[in-house]
Batch of 4 targets.
Target 1
Amino acid sequence: MSSTTEVIQDGSAVRTAAAQGWSSHDTSWVLGLFATAIGAGTLFLPINAGLGGIWPLLVMTVLAFPMTYLAHRGLIRFILSSSKPGSDITEVVGEHFGATAGKLITLLYFFTILPILFLYGVGLTNTVESFVTHQLAMQALPRAPLAFVLTAMLIAIVASSEQMVVRVMGWLVYPFIFVLLGLALYLTKSWNGAVLQGGVPSAGKFSYTLWLSIPVLVFAFNHSPVISRFAVAQQERYGKQAVGKAQQIEKYAVMMMVAVVLFFVFSCVFALSPADLALAKSQNISILSYLGNKFQTPVIAWVAPAVAFVAMSKSFLGHYLGAREGLHGLISQQIGAEKVDRQAKNINRGIMAFLFLSIWGVATVNPSILDMIDSLCGPIIAAMLFIMPMYAIRKVPAMRKYANQPGNVLVTFIGAVAMSAILYKLLGL
C-alpha cells in the first residue's frame, strides 16, 4: 500500500501526519484489534439487535462504524497525549487528572472487566448444558458442579502457562472468524421475511428499542482493553507520527469487524423468526447454541456450539488475565508495591480464590446475560471509552486541539445513551 496521509483537525489549524508505508507490523495490529473485538459479544448481538425488528437494526448498522471508530480514536488520542512516551492508560489518567483519579480509573478498569468475566462464566456453563441436553440427548447436569468444573478448568489453564494460553487463544480466533463467516453464508439458504412483517414501529417504540440495544452494540464492538498497548506500540515505532498511524490502523480494523459482524447478525436475523430470538434470550444461550438446537443438520448442530465454546473460552481466559492484573494493581495502590512483592504468592492465591468463587457463584445463579450487558458491561465500557476521552478534550490542554469536531458530539451522545441503561435497570422502569 502506498504512503498514507492522515489529516487531523487541530483546533483552527490542520496538521498533516504523514505516516510511513504500510508494513507487516500494521497488518498484524489490524488483525489483533479485529481479533480482540470479534468474540463472545458477537454471539449475543443478533439476539438483542434482531428482537427490535428491522428498523432499529438498520439504524444500528449505520451507527456501528462511526461510533466504534470515533470512540476508540478518542481513547487512542488520550493515551498518546501524555508528555511521557510509553505511558499506559492509568499513568496518563494520573498525569492529567491526578493520583486519586488514577486510582479511580484503575478501579473502573477492573469493574469494566469483572462483569464480562461473569458473563463468560454464565455463557460457558449454559453452552455446555445446552449441548448435553440437545446434541447428546442426555439429562442436564447439576448446574453448581458443572459451573465449578468449567471455572476450575479454565483458571487452572491460566495458572499453568499464561504465555501458551495467550498464544493458543490467538491462533483460535482466526478459525473462529472463518467459521463465523461460513455459518453466515450457510444460513442464507434459510433466510425468510419474518423480521420484515412487523411493519414500521411508532416513534416511541422505535426510540425505546434502539436505546436498549445501544449497550449491546457498544459491547459487541469493544476492543478498548488492547488500545493502551496498541497506542504505545505505535508510539515506539512511529514516534511523532503515532497518532496518525494509529488512527489509520484503527480505521481499517473497524471496517473489517463491522463488515463481518453485521453480515453475521443480518444472516442470523433473516434465518430466524422474532419468536426464535425471544426463545434464545429466555434460554440465556448464545445465538450459536440456539442455531445448533434449531437446525439439526450435523454441521450446525455440532459445529455451532463448539465454536461458541471456543469463542467464550478464549474471551474468558483473556479477560481473566486482565481482571487479575487490575485487582493486583488495586491492591498494590493500597498497600504499596514493596509489600505486594514480599507477599506476592499469598496475594496471587487470594486473587485466584476471589475470582474463582465469584465467577462460580454467578455462573451457578445464572443471571440473564443480555441484562448483564445492558446494565453493567455496556455502561461501564461507555464511561471509559466514550465519556472519559471527550471529558479530557475539554479539560486537558494537550487534548484541546481535538475540540469542536463533529464526531465528538456523536461519541458523547452514544456514551450517555449506553450509560443511561444502568439507571433504567436500577430504577426498574
Target 2
Amino acid sequence: MNVGRFRLVLTGAAAAVAVLVGGSAAGCSIGGGTGRLASGESGEPVTITPADGAAQVRPDGRIEVRASDGRLQKVTVQGVAGQGAAAATVTGQFGDGRKVWRSDRTMTPGATYTVTAQARDGGETRTVTSSFTTLKPSKTLSIADVTPNVEGEKVGVGMPIIVTFDAPVADKAAVERALHVDPDKPVEGAWRWVAPDKVIYRTKTYWEPHQKVRFHARLAGVDAGGGAYGAEDARATLVIGPEQITTGDIRKHRMTVTRDGKKLRTIPFSAGNGQTREYTTTSGVHLLMEKGNPVTMTAPGRKPGDPGYYKTVVDHAVRFSNSGEYVHSAPWSVGSQGSANVSHGCINISPANARWYYDIMQRGDIIELTGTDRQVEWDNGWGYWQLSFDEWRKGSALR
C-alpha cells in the first residue's frame, strides 16, 4: 500500500535555524526594561523582560511583565519567524494580584516577538510594548513524521502514535514533556522511546471508538540537548473509527471479526504449517499495519534456486507483523481452510472473505491469535500490546 504522509500543521519557525556555541549562554541573557509607552509618555508603569531591543534571547527563556503601580489588564505576545511565518504562540499566567504576568511556554528560535501590556492605575490605562529577537542556534530539532499520517484516515482502537524526529534526541525528557495527547474521551497513556530519534505513545487500554485524538508537539524553543533547540511546533489529529477486533484460534482454524462488540463474521482459515519457527504463525495481540492489493511475497533470506524459495503474488493482503505475516486471499488452499494449517505463516482465507476483510480493515485494528508456542515480539511490527502497560511506560524518559 502506498501510504502518503500525514499533513502536519506547523506553527513555528519555517526555516532552518542557527547556533548556541558550546551551550554557552554568553550574549543570550534576558534583560529587563520599561518597553515603550504607546502614548509617548515617560515613566515606568510596566517593566517587560526581555527589554525592548534585546537580541539573542534564549528560546527557552521566560517573558515576565510587572506593574509597579496598579494592575495588569491584558498581556499579548505576537511572534514572527523567518520569511514572515508565524512563530509559536506564547501564553502565560497572571500572578500576585495581577501585578505580574509570566509566560508558560518556550519560543520559536530566530523569531521576533512583541509583548504588549496594558496596566490600569486608578482611572488611567497605559499600554507598553517591548520587541526582541530570539537566538538562532546552529542545530535544531524537528518532527520528520507522525504516524498515522494519512489525512482523513480512520484508525483502529489499538493505534499508537509514532513520532519520528529528524535527528537523534539528546535530552529525551525535555522533548517528551513537550508532547501532548488530547483525546475526546480521556484514557491513560505513556510514551516509550524505541530509538534515539523515535518515540511511541500507547494507551493503557484501547482507545474508545468513534472519537478524535489531538496530538500537539509544543517543540519550538525546547532545549533538546546537544546545542539543539526545537525548531517548530507540530499538530496532528487521529480519527478513531469503530472498535474492530479479530480473534482467531490457530488450532481450530477459525477467526471471528467483531465491530463495536457485535459479531460480523466467522472466517475459516489456514495458518502456518509449523514445520519451522519461520513457518509458525505468531500468537499474541497484533495490530493491523497496512494493506496492499496485490502484494508480492518472497521467501525471506532466500534467492531463486535455494531450497524453500518461493515468490507468490497475493490479493487483498492485510499485514499484521514485520515478519511477513498477512491475512490474504489464497484460492489455492481453500480446501484446507477451516481444517488444516498449510501456509508459510500467513493467514490464508478465501478470495471472497479476503476481499471483505480488506475492505473493512483499519490500521490499528486488533487481531489476537492463540494456539501456537511462538509469541509475537513486542517490537515485531506494531506488537506493542504484547507489553503490559507497566512494562511499556518503563521506556519513558519521565518514568
Target 3
Amino acid sequence: MTPTSTDVNLRDLRHKHPNDIAETITELNVKERILAFLLLPGDMKADVFTYFNHTVQEEILKELGSTETANMLENMAPDDRTEIFENFPDLLIKESINLLSAEEKSIALNLLGYPEKSIARLMTPYYIQAKKGWTIKQALNNIKRYGKKAETLNHIYVVDKENKLVDDIRIGKLLMAEEDQTMSSLMDYEFVSLTTTMNREEAIEQFNKYDRAVMPVVSESGVLVGIVTFDDIFDEIERRDTEDIQKFGGLEALELSYTETPLLTLVRKRASVLMILFLGEMLTASAMGFFEEEIAQAVVLALFIPLIISSGGNSGSQAATLIVRAMAIKELDLRDWWYVMRKEVFSGVLLGLILGTVGFLRILLWQQAGFYDYGAHAYLIGLTVGFSLIGIVLWGTLSGSMIPFLLQKLRLDPATSSAPFVATLVDVTGLIIYFSIAATILKGTLL
C-alpha cells in the first residue's frame, strides 16, 4: 500500500540522515511528495534534495516557486549543485542559475565552464586558506570566521601573495602549535594537488595513490581554486565501475540508472551489441557447415560441441575479467603484455589439461559403465575431446587476456572486450580447433 503524507511523520524524519528522508519522500505519490518536501525545514531541503534521483529533482524544481528554489540552491554545496545541473535540460539550468545570488551564480557558472569530465566540475570553492606570514592565532580566527561554510576542516591551505598553493597543513598540527608561531614554522612545502583540467580518472588514481580524504585543486599556474573530497570521488568511482560492468556485460553504458532509463533506450543500448554478437555467432554456423562431412561421418562429435565451445568461452571470459580489472586499478599497463601472455600460456595449458583429463575420463567411464555407447573407438574420441579442450582453453585464455591490451593500444576502453565478445570469438575458432584435431586423430577410423 502506497504511504500517504499523513503516514510520514516529518518530525521524526528530521532526526534521520538526509538520504533516508529522501528515500521516504520518494515513495510518496507526486502531490504528497511535493508537500512533504515543502514541509521540511529550509536548511534541510538542500541536503535532502541532493539525494533524490534526477527525475524527482526535476519534478520538484518545476513545482517549487522561484523563491523556494533560489533558497534551496543557494544553500546547496557548489559541487552537488553542479552535478545536479549536469543532468538538467538547458532551459531549466538557465532558469535555476538566474535565481542565485551574484556570488553563487558566479561560482556555478565557473564550475560549469570547465570540461565535462574534468575534476574541476566536482570541486567546491569553500575551504580554509591562510597566508604563510600569519600567526597561528590569525589562522584560527580565520577558521572561526569561515569554517562553518567550508566543506571540510581536515587541512588548512597555505597560499602566497598571488594565491598560489605552497603547502597544506593538517588541522591537528595547527591546534598543537603555539598561538604566536607563524604558519611558515609549520610548513614543509610538501603537498599533492590536482589541476583543474585533470580528468576524473586521473584524479581517482591520485586519491588512491596518496590515500587522501581531500585534495586541493589548482589552476595550471598553481593558483588554489577549490578542493575535492573523497565522497565526491567515491560517487565518481561508483559511476565508472557501473559503466565498466555494463560494457563488460555486452551492452552500451547507460547514461541514467536502470530504473530511470526509458524502455526504448534500454532496448536500443542492448540491441546494438546483441546484433553484433548475433552476426558473429553466424560464423559458428558457417564453421559447422565447413565440417559437415566430418560431422556426418562421426555424428558422435556433435555431442561434444556445446562442451568444447563453452569451455573456451568461459576460460576467455575469466581471463578478460582478470586483465580488465587489473588495468582499471593500474596493476597492469601496456608494457606488461608479454608478462601476461607468458603467464596465461601456462595457465591455459594447465587449465586445459585439467578439463581435458576430466573430459577424457568421462567418456571412458560412460563407455565402461554402459551409460552411452561411443562405439569401438571410444578411446580415440576421448583423446580428441581431451586434446581439443587443451587447445581451446589455451586459445580462450590467450584471447581473453590479450584483447584488452589490443584495445588499450588502439585507445579504446578495455572494458569493451566484454565476456560476450570474447565468448563469440572463441566459439568460432574453437570449432575449427576441435574439428581439426578430430580430423587428425580420427583419420582412417571414423573419418
Target 4
Amino acid sequence: MGTYNRSDLDAAIKAYDVRGVVGEGIDPDLVGDIGAAFGYIMRGEGATRAVVGYDMRESSPELAESFARGAAAQGLNVTLLGMTSTDELYYASGALECPGAMFTASHNPAKYNGIKMCRSLARPVGEETGLGKIKDLLVDGIPEYNGEAGAIDTKDVLADYAEFLHSLVDVRSGRRLKVAVDAGNGMGGLTVPAVLGEDFDIADLYFELDGNFPNHEANPLEPANLVDLQKFTVETGSDIGIAFDGDADRCFVVDELGNPVSPSAICALVASRYLQKFPGATIIHNLITSHVVPEMIAENGGTAVRTRVGHSFIKAQMAQSGAVFGGEHSAHYYFSEFFNADSGMLAAMHVLAALAEQDKPLSEFMAEYTRYEASGEINSRLGSAQEQKAKQAEIETAFAERTASSDWMDGLTIELKDSKAWFNVRASNTEPLLRLNVEAPTRAEVDALVDEVLGIIRG
C-alpha cells in the first residue's frame, strides 16, 4: 500500500466520486488501494461479492483490474463486467445484489478517469457514506486481511440489462420511429444497438467506442456538442434525436426540427407517465428544474418533492419518500423501478414510447411540457466562498422589495412578486463558480433578469 496525505486525496476523492487526470491525480497504485479500502468496508458490511465495469477510455481496463485486485485481496469475489454504461453497472449491482464500481470520468476529456462506487442495489457511496472512510483508511492504513483472497471472474450482463429495461417500458406497441442517436463515441455506442436496435430505425452518429472523443466532447449539456445531432436529425428525416454523454447515464433530446427539448420538459413528461402507472405517487425534482415539473405533477394528481441539486440528495430523497421517479435539470433521471438509480436509456425509452403512442411530431407533442423560457446555467468565476456568499447576500438585498418568497435550500432561490419568474444563484461544489439559473414566462423577462443579476455578480 502507498503512503498518502489527505490534501492529495481530497483532490482526487470528491463529494460523489473519484476523479482526476490519469498519471497525475489517479494511477493504478492508488486505484488498487482504493479497491482494497472499498473491499474492507463492504466486507465489513456483509458483502461477499462486487461487480466492476468500465467505459471506453484507454486507461479504464488497467484501472478496473487494479481495483478488482485490491478488492479481492480484502476477501471480496469480484466480477469484471467489461465495458458497460454506468446505468448498466447499476443494473448489475441491483440484479446481483452486490456492491459495484464503475470506471468513468463521464463527460470529462480523455486524460481523465474516475470511479463511481455503490453499495448493493445501486445505493450511492458519497463523502458521508463511504468516500470519507476510504480516505481515512488510505491515510491511516488498511487492516491486513488474513483470510483467503477473493476470486476474480468475468460476466457480460448487456443482454440481461436490455431485457430488464424492456420489462419496464413497452416500446413495441406504438408506431415505428426513426431515431437519430449521437453516442459521442461513448458507451451509448454499445448499449443503444443492444437495447433499441430491434424496435426502432436507428440512424447512428459517432457510435465508434473511442475514449479520445475525436468528434466532440461527450457532454451534451453544452450546446456546442448538440450541433451535430441537430443537423443529423433533420438530414436523416428522423422523428427524434437523442444524445448520450460519455458513460450513457444521461440522455438529451432534440425534436424533428433539430430544436433541443429541455431536460425539465422530459422530466415533466416522464413524471406524467409514472403518475398514470402509479396514481398519487411522489415525484422528486431538484430546485433548478422548470416550474412546469411540479405543475404537471400536481395536475396529474401526484406529490412533488423539491430537493437540492446532486444525485446523492435525489437518491436519498427517493428512498426516504418512496418516490417513483426523480429528475434533474442536468438530464439525470432516477427510477424506483431501477433501484432508485439514474438511467439515460430508461428515460429515452419512456420518451420514445410516449412519442410512438400518438401521431403528433415531437415538437408539437412536447409543447404542453414547455411553458416557460429559461436562461440555462450561466457561470461566473469568483475567487472565494466568502466572495460568493457576499454576492448572494447583495442579490438578496437588491431584490428584497420584489421577492414573493425565497430560500437557501441550495444557494439562493428567489420567486418574484406578480410574476412566475424566479432565479437561483448557487455555488459550484467543485469549482470557484457561482451558477445562475433564471426562468420566466417570456424571453424578455429572462434576459432582463439575467442582465440584472449578472450585473451584481460581476460588478
